[in-house]
Design goal:
The chain has about 210 residues and is of the alpha/beta class. The chain contains 7 helices and 7 strands. It has a 7-stranded mixed sheet, with helices on both faces.
Length: about 210
């Protein structure tokens, strides 16, 4: 999919206090950045930011970091963030480089509507592949929690298998997330689009080493 350029995107990025220009400087020290010891949740591939922003507003006791690799997408997210949010940061990196900015400090990862990379030869690029799960092992603080949503059934089945093969316990395995009304559910832009088209939204929670997670 070709991304549209955003006018003045460099100015938008440079003027936002939520955009972290050198995130590698905080590797292993993100709690110092936020000034507290609250859990840190990240969304890899945040898109235009609806999900991560609404979560930060709803859960001030959690620190949230949105990750996106495209300048233009980040530039669309930043103007949407209200002033005065103290538990949100936005970084622009490729997920392949995630170990350069986090180390043993993340409590939860959200994978929302990730690129399915449908060709078999591209399976290792999927964010739920063993290659990425091994990367995540190094950024989790102790317990491991991955929350995944997708509209792509093949990616969903692949992810269930990948999580299981890599020691994760699966729960909340849902083949139609919007099959029942839940006004408390925070959605993404893609999710709203696909759901309005009548497409099922698949979801799962994968955990490893978690006993009493809230």
């Amino acid at each position: 999919m070709r991304l549209r350029n955003v006018k003045n995107k460099e100015i938008i990025l440079s003027n936002s206090s939520y955009f972290i220009k050198n995130p590698e400087l905080y590797c292993g020290k993100w709690n110092n950045f936020f000034g507290n010891d609250n859990p840190i949740y990240i969304e890899i591939g945040m898109g235009k930011g609806k999900f991560i922003i609404e979560n930060a507003l709803k859960y001030p006791e959690i620190n949230f970091i949105g990750i996106e690799k495209f300048d233009s997408v980040v530039a669309k997210c930043l103007p949407k963030i209200p002033d005065g949010i103290n538990n949100l940061a936005i970084v622009r990196i490729d997920a392949n480089n995630i170990n350069n900015i986090f180390k043993n400090e993340i409590s939860r990862i959200y994978l929302n509507f990730s690129d399915p990379w449908p060709k078999v030869r591209h399976a290792s690029r999927r964010l739920s592949s063993k290659i990425f799960l091994d990367k995540y092992d190094k950024i989790f603080i102790s317990n491991k929690e991955i929350y995944l949503r997708t509209d792509n059934r093949d990616l969903y089945i692949y992810s269930l298998m990948s999580f299981s093969e890599n020691g994760y316990t699966l729960s909340n395995i849902i083949f139609d997330l919007h099959g029942k009304e839940d006004e408390s559910l925070i959605t993404t832009e893609y999710e709203d689009k696909f759901s309005n088209m009548g497409l099922p939204i698949y979801a799962v929670v994968a955990k490893k080493g978690v006993q009493n997670s809230k």
